[in-house]
Amino acid sequence: MRRSYKFLLRPTAKQQAAARERVAGVHRKIRRQRLDFAHKTARKLVPDHDLIAHEALRIVNMTRSASGTLQAPGTNVAAKAGLNRSILDAGWGVFLNVLRAKAESAGRVTVEVDARYTSQRCARCGHTAAENRLSQAIFRCQSCSHTAHADQNAAENICRAGLALQAARTPA
Fold this sequence. Notes:
Blueprint: H1 13-45, E1 51-55, H2 59-62, H3 77-90, H4 92-105, E2 109-113, E3 138-140, E4 147-149, H5 150-169
């Protein structure tokens, strides 16, 4: 039986161009899917809410490299690279831009809330401590023993801060 060693040959320029176009087509499809999802989700949110508060995300800072320098190399570089890929793949920036545009065209208000301590502050008593966040999913206040899902607690804090910012902006 004779073996084929075609895979060892370098592809021609025509084959490379075809492969490049296939990859570009896949990326275009993913971009359209992400944009479609953002539009559909924003279209569901905007008619039901007069005020939409969200964290002021600094995506560039969140996806900054963990590689460090030659003198002080970073730790968990591979894990950080995977996290960066997930953050960018989620398309948060695209979604927020679409949400702002749809809210503005519908006469709704969007408010960016400072993200600091929203996941560590108790929505019930206001106590802020890093120890309140037991894990990624569990929030338990060390002061008043309030227990909730961490994301739900953070959402309540963001909502409260958004309402306060909007009240401060609105003339009496």
